Amino acid sequence: VQLQASGGGLVEAGDSLRLSCAASGLTFSRQTIAWFRQTPEQEREFVAAIRWNGSTYYADSVKGRFTISRNNAKNTVSLLMNSLRPEDTAVYYCAADPSIILSSIRISRQYDNWGQGTQVTVSS
Can you tell me the distance from the alpha carbon of 84 to that of 18, in angstroms, rounded to the nearest whole number? Predict the structure, then answer.
């Protein structure tokens, strides 16, 4: 199983970025795919997730600004991040698991497969 996160960068507050997570070696259409983020000061934090049926879930801190979507034909998940804030600065990781239950969707340790992370830096 391989997850490849990309799309990070340095932007100014208010700008947008689109992160992508490309997956291989798994039955993509059955996976719940999630994005988490982490800073040196904080534990890994849930950002957004999308289930096999297209249902989406967001952290309160990004709701209304971030949009997660999936393309099963291309085995990719995107995270469109609008109205970025300095507090969104972090390394963003994508994760996948085929058997996440809804009550665990925000818990990082429940995911078996992880990408390498992509840095997002938002300047004020």
Answer: 11
Angstrom distance (rounded) from CA 116 to CA 92 = 9
Alpha-carbon distance of 94 to 31, in angstroms, equals: 12
Using alpha carbons only, give the angle 49, 81, 96 rounded to the nearest 5 degrees: 25
64-77 pLDDT, tens digit each: 999 999 999 999 99
- Residues 8-41 pLDDT 10s: 999 999 999 999 999 999 899 999 999 999 999 9
Q: Are 119 and 6 in contact (CB under 8 A)?
A: no
Tell me: pLDDT of 61 over 90. yes
Cβ neighbours, 10 Å, residue 75: 19
Cβ–Cβ < 8 Å for 21, 3: yes
Tokens of 3: 């997850």
